[in-house]
Design a protein that fits this description.
The complex is a heterodimer. By secondary structure, chain A is an alpha/beta fold. Chain A has a single domain (about 5-265), classed as Aldolase class I (TIM Barrel). In chain A, about 50% of the residues lie in helices and about 15% in strands. Chain A has helices spanning about 5-20, 35-50, 70-80, 85-95, 110-115, 115-125, 140-150, 165-175, 200-205, 220-230, 240-265; strands at about 25-30, 55, 100-105, 130, 155, 160, 180, 215, 235. Chain A has a nine-stranded parallel β-sheet with strand order 5-4-3-2-1-9-8-7-6, sandwiched between helices. In chain A, helix 6 packs parallel to helix 7 and helix 10 (about 220-230) crosses helix 11. By secondary structure, chain B is an alpha/beta fold. Chain B folds into two domains: about 10-50 and about 90-205, Rossmann fold (3-Layer(aba) Sandwich), CATH 3.40.50.1100; about 60-85 and about 210-395, Rossmann fold (3-Layer(aba) Sandwich), CATH 3.40.50.1100. Chain B is about 45% helix and about 15% strand. Chain B contains 16 helices and 14 strands. Chain B is globular. The model of chain B has no long low-confidence stretch (mean pLDDT about 95). Classes of the chains: A alpha/beta, B alpha/beta.
Chain lengths: ~270, ~400
């Protein structure tokens, strides 16, 4: 398999964690929330608290995959005047702060508007690791795939419980870094109960690819993170961290991240094969 | 030309496609297959045609508007979609998709609505076909279209007021998509216009193309020839694609889409997506849209809630780019002048959406000259707009 190449930056960080006998933790916060500077501090707190990969959100006017918590936060960021160039400068600050890979989670139109190749060049130039693209499927992604390959960036596409095996094979073949598996049929946001759709989905993904698989949507505490990393390579946490930043500032983010980081370090089943 | 478009992935040239979350791709594939199978099944198309005839009242009349023609200086024919059950062309699409919902074995329908016409049409189709119906509507629109909210509720639909973003149509679509991602196994999303991800632009076109098919036949019967031009208003673009489709192969018939010019182009307060927008991706398709330098959607403005949308269906983008149809804006003021003119000359109070098309036809009449015959899609009736009209014209109280 071509794992070595496809691991990219985020995948290498996840495998490093896995090699330590634990799951990896991927934390999301949007740029510009609650302010430009406070968002930088929030992500730094997340890094200090132990995330292995940062997922930085690019606030967008029509976030159809996001629940209320992230919608509100990104509205605040946009109301504060956040621009695409500010997201790039946030990435630059974070890349200078630590070696933790920074992926940007973005809906597609802002990238298309910036110019796909131009964005890839500028983003790579400030030390960005890659993009997570929730409304771009590989079928429509030829321009991005070419730009990412040219500029050595990770391409993280999503798979869903509704994805057919054929789509999982096609999508994972287009990924570099890791595969983002959405644990539920629904939008982002904390949920009380673990999803029973996630484990079978991860198993299907793993039969199609050697790439690490991260599971996101609905994970909000260490117990849930532990539950997910029992079968997945990484737990992805978003809305809960956004809420923590809004309510408790960087200290709140640090506290939650430490709880999550403890969760992914609990005893793992040995069945997480590569 | 359009008979082969879109391609199997929903592309009209560089427009269209499927810019959607992966979670919805398999369901969209299933929907595409179900729609193709249904359109090839005489039982389905027969039932659809029966409902159009017996329930909607199709074919709608083609009316020779002689007094309006005198005012316009060219012959104007009105396709009277305002006489359809529920008062607009929207019911054709709602019934087609509701029948498809039943065929797919789903029992819940969601829809978005701006002015409320598509919401009412969907609630109507769901009442008739015994489907559960939830309509998402921006909070701003529920306030300015209270009558249609009451109609939907009376018809048994649940109306959810959307308080996110700009609290208008685009946010209602966002919220409907969020619902659909979580409910797609049992729910069909009846999108109200020929926009969005494949297969919606092509599927909605199939269900509304009867407008143009009927009008073409009626024109031949009335005139012994085709009209010189066909004119329709364009928000998302369903009434226009409904009118245009039958005429696209008729190269001698000019096609005009009339966009909402709002306060006027120069003010930036408009919804003239093709005239003033740039290519981008919104709500699942690549098309023209109103966006800022960063690709963030800009809020649109139009006196017509039904045209007040910052995007447009991808086939219109294609028709504009290839030059088969041309698109031009009409301001709020011009539309309201036409609204009054049609009311006074023909005794027909149009929807403000349709008044844009009438206003466009008045300009086109000057360009084409007195020998021209211009077909206008009168896509809806104006009852819903009487509050707006009363304020605009100062119609409150009694005459002195």
């Amino acid at each position: 398999m071509s794992d070595v190449v496809a691991l990219g930056k985020a995948g290498a960080a996840i495998r490093k964690a896995n090699d330590e006998g634990r799951g990896a933790l991927i934390g999301y916060l949007p740029a510009g929330f609650p302010t430009y500077d406070a968002a930088v501090d929030g992500v730094k707190a997340m890094i200090d608290g132990g995330v292995d990969v940062v997922e930085l959100g690019l606030p967008y006017s029509d976030p159809v995959m996001d629940g209320v918590t992230i919608q509100r936060a990104t509205e605040i960021a946009r109301a504060g005047g956040l621009r695409t160039r500010d997201v790039l400068s946030t990435v630059e600050k974070l890349a200078a702060y630590s070696d933790v890979p920074v992926l940007v989670m973005t809906y597609w139109n802002p990238i298309e508007r910036y110019g796909v190749d131009r964005f890839a060049a500028d983003f790579a130039g400030v030390g960005g690791a890659g993009l997570i693209t929730p409304d771009l499927i590989p079928d429509e992604g030829a321009e991005w795939i070419a730009a990412a390959d040219k500029h050595d960036l990770d391409k993280v596409f999503l798979v869903s419980p509704s994805s057919t095996d054929a789509r999982i094979a096609m999508t994972t073949a287009a990924c570099r870094g890791f595969v983002y598996a959405t644990a539920v049929m629904g939008v982002t946001g904390a949920r009380d109960k673990p999803s029973d759709l996630a484990a079978p989905l991860v198993a299907r993904v793993k039969s199609a690819t050697g790439l690490p698989v991260g599971v996101g949507l609905g994970i909000s505490n260490g117990d849930q993170a532990a539950g997910v990393t029992a079968f997945a390579d990484a737990a992805i946490v978003g809305a809960a961290l956004v809420k923590a930043l809004g309510e408790g500032g960087p200290a709140g983010v640090r506290e939650l991240t430490e709880d999550l980081a403890e969760g992914v370090r609990r005893e793992r089943r040995t069945t997480v094969d590569r | 030309m359009s008979t082969v478009l879109p391609d199997q992935f929903g592309h009209f040239g560089r427009f269209g496609g499927r810019f959607m979350p992966e979670a919805l791709i398999a369901p969209l594939d299933e929907l595409t297959q179900a729609w193709r199978d249904a359109m090839a099944d005489p039982e389905f198309t027969g039932e659809f045609e029966r409902m159009l005839r017996e329930y909607v009242g199709a074919p709608s009349l083609l009316f020779d508007a002689t007094r309006l023609s005198d005012a316009a200086g060219a012959r104007i024919l009105l396709k009277r979609e305002d006489l359809n059950h529920t008062g607009a062309h929207k019911i054709r699409n709602a019934i087609g998709q509701a029948l498809l919902t039943k065929r797919m074995g789903k029992h819940r329908v969601i829809a978005e609505t701006g002015a409320g016409q598509h919401g009412v049409a969907t609630a109507t189709a769901c009442a008739y076909l015994d489907l559960e119906c939830v309509v998402y509507m921006g909070e701003v629109d529920t306030e300015r279209q209270a009558l249609n909210v009451a109609r939907m509720k009376l018809l048994g639909a649940e109306v959810i007021s959307v308080k996110n973003g700009s609290r208008t149509l685009k946010d209602a679509i966002n919220e409907a998509l969020r619902d659909w991602v979580a409910s797609v196994d049992k729910t069909h999303y009846i999108l109200g216009t020929a926009a969005g991800s494949h297969p919606f632009p092509a599927m909605v076109r199939d269900f509304v193309r009867g407008i143009g098919d009927e009008a073409r036949e009626q024109s031949l019967e009335l005139l012994g020839k085709l009209p010189d031009a066909a004119v329709a208003s364009v928000g998302g673009g369903s009434n226009a694609i409904g009118l245009f489709t039958a005429f696209i192969p008729d190269a001698d018939v000019k096609l005009y889409g009339i966009e909402p010019g709002g306060d006027g182009f120069e003010t930036g307060r408009h919804a003239a997506t093709i005239t003033a927008g740039q290519v981008g991706v919104l709500h699942g398709a690549r098309s023209f849209l109103l966006q800022d330098e960063d690709g963030q959607t800009i809020e649109s403005h139009s006196i017509s809630a039904g045209l007040d949308y910052p995007g447009v269906g991808p086939e219109h983008a294609w028709l504009a780019e290839t030059g088969r149809a041309s698109y031009r804006p009409i301001t709020d003021a011009e539309a309201m002048d036409a609204f009054k003119l049609l009311s006074r000359t023909e005794g027909i109070i149009p929807a403000i959406e349709s008044a844009h098309a009438v206003a466009g036809a008045l300009d086109i009449a000057k360009e084409l000259g007195p020998e021209a015959t211009i077909l206008v899609n009168l896509s809806g009736r104006g009852d819903k707009d009487m509050d707006t009209a009363a304020k605009w014209f100062g119609l409150g109280g009694s005459d002195e």
